[in-house]
Amino acid sequence: MRKLSAGFFLLLLFSTAKAQWAQISSQAEASPAKGIEHRYVVMEDAATGDRASLELAIFSMKSCRLTVVDRANEPRADLEDVMSGGNFLAGVNGGYFDPEYRPIGLLVVDGKVVTPLQKARLLTGVLSSVAKKVQISRVSEFSMNQKPDAAVECGPMIVDAGKSVHGLESTKTAQRTFAAVATGDKAAIGFCSDVTLADLSNVLAAVAIPGFKIQRAINLDGGSSSAFWFKRANGGAFSIGEQKPVRDFVAIVPR
């Protein structure tokens, strides 16, 4: 029994240590518009020395709004081309889609439902713009009676009530994109270097930016679809391109 207890204790310590992500650096970059900034954040796992980098477009819901861009009837284009051609401040790829580029799950664009809510293993939440707010809701919490201007069904939830979510996949690494709502009137869309979903959850729960404590975050379509774009104050752009074209994008525009 002593050997079993000691082994269990060591396993417990190891599991706890693996979650010790901490922020080691952060750099901010301004936008040409008020109420939004680009943050580059480096996180480190104290137990393993592994590092993850985040690109965050952090914005005030009072100054900016979230919108969904759907490329249903247009030629495939990458995020950079789409964002550069409009009045956008930042953007990432959107939700899941099938091989025919049909969206999987709820998609609302300019208040119109493109596809309805769908039950699926990964589709556990909804990112939406409702009444001048950005919301991240579990599917069971969401209602179309809220009349969202924009919405995309996605998942899984990766931060809830300010804490990491247990039980997420912990072996497959990939680039990830996500959306988050934080304290006050703050929200963000973002990109993370290769991590597992479990690590992304721990990373985002540990981000330490003054005035920005993530309360909820949800995963978007990652892997080869992952992309991030931010309009710089000098009129140029910071861009991380996707490896394959996607159906829709989540973007930030000025109010």
Describe this structure in words.
This protein is mainly beta and 255 residues long. The chain has one domain. It contains three helices and 18 strands. The strands form three sheets. Strands 1-2-3-14-13-15-11-12 form an eight-stranded antiparallel beta sheet. The protein has a five-stranded antiparallel beta sheet with strand order 4-18-5-16-17. β6 and β7 form a beta hairpin. It is globular, with a radius of gyration of 18 Å. The N and C termini lie far apart (64 Å). The N terminus is likely disordered.
Question: In summary, what is this structure?
Answer:
By secondary structure, this protein is mainly β. Helices cover 13% and strands 44% of the residues.
Characteristic terms for this protein:
single chain, 255 residues, mainly beta, 8-stranded antiparallel β-sheet, 5-stranded antiparallel β-sheet, 18 strands, disordered N terminus
Q: Strands of the biggest beta sheet: in what spatial order?
A: 1-2-3-14-13-15-11-12
Query: Which spans of ≥5 residues are poorly predicted at pLDDT below 50?
Result: 1-17
Q: Give the N-terminus to C-terminus distance in angstroms.
A: 64 Å
Radius of gyration over alpha carbons? Answer: 18 Å
Fold blueprint:
Layout: H1 2-18, E1 21-30, E2 36-45, E3 51-60, E4 64-70, H2 79-84, E5 90-93, E6 107-109, E7 112-115, E8 125-130, E9 133-138, E10 150-154, E11 157-160, E12 163-164, E13 174-182, E14 186-195, H3 197-206, E15 214-219, E16 228-231, E17 237-240, E18 248-254
Antiparallel strand pairs: 1-2, 2-3, 3-14, 4-18, 5-16, 5-18, 6-7, 6-10, 8-9, 8-10, 11-12, 11-15, 13-14, 13-15, 16-17
